[in-house]
Amino acid sequence: MESVGLRELKNHLSAHISQVKNGGTVTVTEHGHPVARIVPIEERSILEELIESGVATPPVRGRRTKPHPLPANGTVSDLVAAQRR
Predict the structure, then answer these.
(1) Which of 19, 38, 42, 67 sits in a 20 to 30 Å window from 77, CA-based?
(2) Which of the two residues, 79 and 11, has the higher pLDDT score?
(3) What is this structure's pTM?
(4) In the chain, what are the domains?
């Protein structure tokens, strides 16, 4: 596993991506502190491992849809004042 700073990663991104393609892992640091890890896509995520081991279960349903906006007349300040009465 290699640690690289943000500037190094930016300046030599192709080389680091090649390293990851070959099975390596790159830890990205900012001011000497690790902030991200670039890993090969073939590796399973922690969530996938937890699901496989039976510790976690996948969601039963998909994400909820966004609510439809309600029509309103007036400014936000007017609406808030009306709710406070």
Answers:
(1) 67
(2) 11
(3) 0.49
(4) 2-53 (3.40.1620.10)
